[in-house]
Predict the 3D structure of the following.
Amino acid sequence: MKVPVSWLNEYVDIDMNLDDLAHRLTMAGNEVEDIERTGWIDNVVVGHVLAVEPHPDADRLRLVKVDHGNGEAEVVCGAPNVAAGQKIAYASIGAVLQDAYSDGPGKTKKLKRSKIRGVVSDGMVCSVRELGIGDDHDGILVLDDDAKVGTPIGELLGESVIDIELTPNRPDCLGVVGVARDVAAITGNPFRQPNIDFEATGPNVNSLATVEIVDPDLCLRYTASVIQGVKIGPSPQWLQDRLTAIGERPINNLVDVTNFVMFELGQPLHAFDYDKVVDHKIIVRRAAEGETLVTLDDKERKLGSEMLLIADPDRGIGLAGVMGGANSEISDATTNVILESATFDGVNNRKTARGLELASQATLRFEKSLRTGLSEVGLRRATKLILEIAGGVVARGIIDVYPSKNDEQQCVRLDRERILTVLGVEFETSLIETTLGNLGFDLVGDANGWDVQIPYWRPDVSIPEDLVEEIARIGGYDNIPTTTLAGRPPQWQPQPEMDLRNRVTDVLARTGMREMISYAATTSEGESRVSLSGDTASSVKLRNPITADFAVMRRTLREAILETVARNSRTWRSPIALFETGRVFLDFGEGLPEERQMAVGAFAGPRNELHWDASTDQSDFYDAKGAAEAVLDDLGIEAVFEPGEDATFAAGRTAVIKVPSQNNAVVGIVGEVSSGVFSQFDAEVDNVSMFELDLVALLKVIQGSEGSDKYQEYVRLPASHRDLSLIVDTSVTAGEIVAIANRNRIVTSATVFDLFEGKGVPDGKKAVAVRLVYQSPNKTLTADQIGKIEGQILNQLSKELGAELRAQ
Amino acid sequence: MTETQDTQTSESVEELKSAAVAALNSADSSEKLEAWRVEFMGRKGRLTSLLRGLGSFAIEDRKIVGAAANRLRGELESLYEDRESDSKSSQAPVGSIDITLPGRKPALGGLHPSTQMIREITQAFNEMGFQTIEGPEVELEKYNFDMLNIPADHPARDQWDTIWVDSDTHDDVLLRTHTSPMQARVMEENDPPIRVVVPGKCYRYESTDATHEWHFNQVEGLAVDEGITLADLKGTLYEFARRVFGANRKVRFRCDYFPFVEPGVDMSIDWNGGWMEIMGAGMVHPKVLENAGYDSSKYTGFAFGMGPERISMLRNEITDIRHFFSNDLRFLTQF
């Protein structure tokens, strides 16, 4: 909302620096985004033309002698209207003026001392265009005779326009008087109400026109006046200036008055050509479905049955509170006018405007549910101005159809104690009463507080807290103390899912992986690239996705991480080790979808940073498995990895993660992503390995094994380490060997530490080196005892897996 | 004692000299050189012992041996200095390694900047007694709007352009536009006192550019009890700002409007000579309390909400919010 300071000054005196005022308005909730200043030009002052003489060498130029308060200057001037005795705007050398001869607006030129046809011009007499306050350049600007010589021109012509970003709760500030009331409260200066009195000398209004409201739910009040014998023409300069200053285009005196009053008071108005309204009867009713109306912009609008129409007995003549009809428009030939000032239902008005994509200044106000009291004030103000500007005779009385009379809340009780309860500080009675009084609230005080009358322009105030805010915002939140919360802190509530996700996130970051956070929405086609299992629940579809790329909520984290790996692989030559913990959205068709917490991690590219003593191998399955193992270790979960099948992953290179102690609950999967899947992502690496953990399943496992994390006293007796070098079929897995070794209770660990195929090992066989650790909890084992156990284990390995000891 | 002394003093100057020279020649490191100095030249070294033992010699012998021992001291000192300067000027001691080669640095992983910021914010409030909780991202209109005093078709809803869920059975499901629905949910399920912070993703139907994302995180906060005031709101948020933005940061509270608070507050901090909005806040609107079944004449509270990505952008001078969810490692590895 643009508020010219000169306009504001009509309703309140501003005895405060403009920047300070802007600060106070901002603190009070009306955020000043900018202050535009026009007409303030350095080195331009009021000058007095002492004499005008012909130029010796040019017929059209003259030499003008100017008294500028600080001496005299001789200026060469080409303007035809310059004359001795005038007060003019004199620019001395160095003034920066608008370039009147430039095509584009906003170009400036610095005034230099120059010779014009042989005569030195010591400055310039300015036109309106050169001063940047208008378009006229036919002659110089002639100022009022009482302008004081030497006064900076800005003090006469300068305008500052405050640009306020309004909050939606303050429709009153969509009128300059609303802002003026805040200024009155801030400065403590009285507010001056615009004059709404006029002399009605015409016939009784009811004899000239009638109004009927058919749908009172959508039209809460309709006031109208009739002015006869108006003369349509351009508005006076002051009115045009007001509208121009806020960026509105003057049209004619009638329309300009209705616009002016809307920007002054916040009440939208509409003027109909009285003679074009059939039977001079206005009917406010819902449109029939499909009914059409040609609006002022000459477009035919097809209306719906919930749109409110202003009609005469024959046809629609306007779309209520949105736009007038072309058939009843004010034209140059108009002589009689019906002026409408009504209160329409905000929600309905907004729906209609949105439905027809007709956003207007009127809807901007109506949609905020104006109070009915404003319509009569707006009508009287506009009628008065039309009478003054366009002449004519006003009919006696106003039409006022007011079906919702007495519906509005008039009074709010404000207890003194409530102010303290909400703000934590007491205010002096005089401060409270002055603040609310200056804002236009009427107060009746008693020992405990006030009964506060809510004025018609403040639909946002309806509860005591609203009044508390009024007091606080005008006084400034700066003046409220800062205290720390007292009282008891609430009882802690367990958040196991969130805690688990945070823990898994931390472990993965600790292992050297980098966390990513991807968009939670995707496309069905994109997601299908990872070949989700057919029994996955449905997607949550979006009705109005931001773009087609985000049409559904994701059901998996796999797609995003593969996409991210692929994208990074094109620019990132170091190891790629990414993980994400987050929600997937599963629609089971009932209630809100399940938001399931998952974790995925992926490895691609080299395993290590380039280093003088590190391998340059590519990462593989075992990197992904290791990260999953780290999480499981950290959570104290003993899991097994079994060969698994999943369409995202490569056959034979995939393991499902199960927890034997919890009925083999599946908690995740790890594998090399199948080339068929990964080739659909535009990657510059060949392979990616990935794990996925289902945090909900993990949480169940953790909750099912509570109490299993007790400390075990460690065995103080010495342990013996023995290595076995075995030859087995290549199909024998490390897991099988380790499982057999672990069957013996004396074996505390069995670790495969070397694998070899090739030279020295027969075809179809591999050499496996295993380190066994033997330890008894209650005695030191002798070499014989260990040898005996080792023999038993070798026997079992031989019998069950065909393993042989490798010849040394 | 006597025996030892005898043994030591019985060592002749010549013997000491040959032993010292041999030992010096075989001292091949600076450690060994130092050990040699201590053994032969130190305060308790062999040459000192020899000189101290002179007292047991006859007067004549004492003079001769003393002179020889002092000569030896001069010789050994000069030999030692030669060797020491040699060892300093030589390239490297035997067995040196190239300490400029990079170490075996374990890979350092890291958290996403949003996660880091969310944790920093929530932790600051955790220490003031606020517990961190989370809530659904696919939410009911009831919680996202209605219970927060944002009725349907109200212009206030324009502040939250909404992405709706497409469903045959429900038309009241949406992607939450803010974390505020958790205010309603928490109050509906718990009795006061309440002190929670709620981080999480939010979604808006808003076209994206360098400063706008349709997908972002928010951290909500809510405190409700008897006796909570706007002064408490200021104190709590001021403490937060000091912690996250620095102890000398200036903080500004001004009036602002959000339908679910009254009075409404905007908190800004001083930044590059101006004020930068950090969060919206306010005293919980009595209607919101009543909608959740609280007695608004008895309980008051405050709520606040802020964007961790915005704060991260401010602090780390990130100029494009879209970096956060594009997960380029060239971005992620800087945090």
